[in-house]
Specification:
- The chain is 45% helix and 23% strand.
- The chain has 231 residues and is of the alpha/beta class.
Length: 231
C-alpha cells in the first residue's frame, strides 16, 4: 500500500518548483512509490523531497520529470525518468552530477536507519529541446537558489545556516552556506563542499547565473575577518 500522505507532500513540492503550473496539473503526479507505511524516519521523507528539488532545479523540462521510489531487499531504490536532454544534464560530464546527487541522498538519509540509492536514470523518449548555450541573466532567481542551498545544508548538518551571495564575474557569483556552528573535525564538510560546488553549477546556469557554491562554518568567517582575507 502506498503512503499517500507522503506522496501528496512530495507531489506538492515538485509542482511548486515547476515553471508552468498548467503542465504540472495536466501531467499529474510525478512521484510514484511502492513504499510501505512507516518509512523509519522523517529524515528519509525529507531526503527524498530535497533530492527532488535538486533534480528539478537542474532539469530544463521539469514538467517531464518522474521519480519512482521502491523498496527492494531492505533498500529504497530511486529511479528518475526525464527528457533525453535532461538525463544527460543529470548524469553530467564523467557522470559527476549523478555521483554527487547519489552522495547527497546518502548524506541526507544517513541517520534514517535504512539504505537508499539512485539506481537508474532513464530517458522518457520525448523529443529533445534544441540546444541552448549558457546565457547569463541580469534578473535571475537568486532567492530560490539560496533557499535550496540553505535547506539541504541545514538538513545535512542539522544546524541553522545563513547563505550569502557575492559577485564573482559578470557571468557568475559565489554563494556561501555558512553553518552556524563549529564544524572543526567534521568529516562530512569537505565532501559536502565539493558536492554543492559541482551540483550548483548546473542549477545556477539553469536559473540564469553560474553559481560557485561553498560551505563552511561561522568560525571561518570570523577568522577571515580577523586576518583581512576574503572567504
Amino acid at each position: 500500500m502506498a503512503d499517500w500522505k507522503r506522496l501528496t507532500q512530495w507531489e506538492h513540492e515538485l509542482n511548486s518548483q515547476c515553471d508552468d503550473a498548467h503542465h504540472a496539473m495536466m501531467n499529474g503526479p510525478r512521484i510514484a512509490q511502492s513504499l510501505m507505511p512507516n518509512m523509519q524516519d522523517d529524515r528519509l521523507d525529507k531526503a527524498l523531497g530535497l533530492l527532488s528539488r535538486v533534480v528539478l532545479a537542474i532539469a530544463k523540462r521539469p514538467d517531464e520529470v518522474r521519480i519512482n521510489v521502491e523498496r527492494t531487499e531492505g533498500t529504497f531504490e530511486v529511479t528518475i525518468t526525464a527528457n533525453p536532454g535532461d538525463t544527460r544534464r543529470l548524469v553530467g560530464k564523467g557522470a559527476e552530477n549523478l555521483k554527487q546527487m547519489s552522495a547527497l541522498l546518502r548524506l541526507l538519509a544517513r541517520d534514517s536507519g535504512v539504505a537508499v540509492r539512485i539506481c537508474d536514470l532513464i530517458s522518457n523518449g520525448n523529443p529533445e529541446p534544441p540546444f541552448e548555450g549558457y546565457k547569463p541573466q541580469t534578473c535571475w532567481d537568486s532567492v530560490k537558489i539560496e533557499g535550496l542551498l540553505r535547506d539541504i545544508t541545514e538538513a545535512v548538518f542539522q544546524l541553522p545556516v545563513v547563505v550569502m551571495t557575492e559577485p564573482h564575474t559578470e557571468y557568475s557569483v559565489k554563494m556561501y552556506a555558512v553553518v552556524q556552528g563549529d564544524l572543526a573535525g567534521n568529516r562530512v564538510l569537505s565532501a559536502y563542499d565539493k558536492l554543492v560546488n559541482i551540483l550548483f553549477i548546473p542549477i545556477g546556469t539553469n536559473a540564469g547565473m553560474k553559481v560557485y557554491a561553498h560551505c563552511h562554518d561561522w568560525k571561518k568567517d570570523r577568522r577571515s575577518s580577523a586576518t583581512g582575507h576574503a572567504c
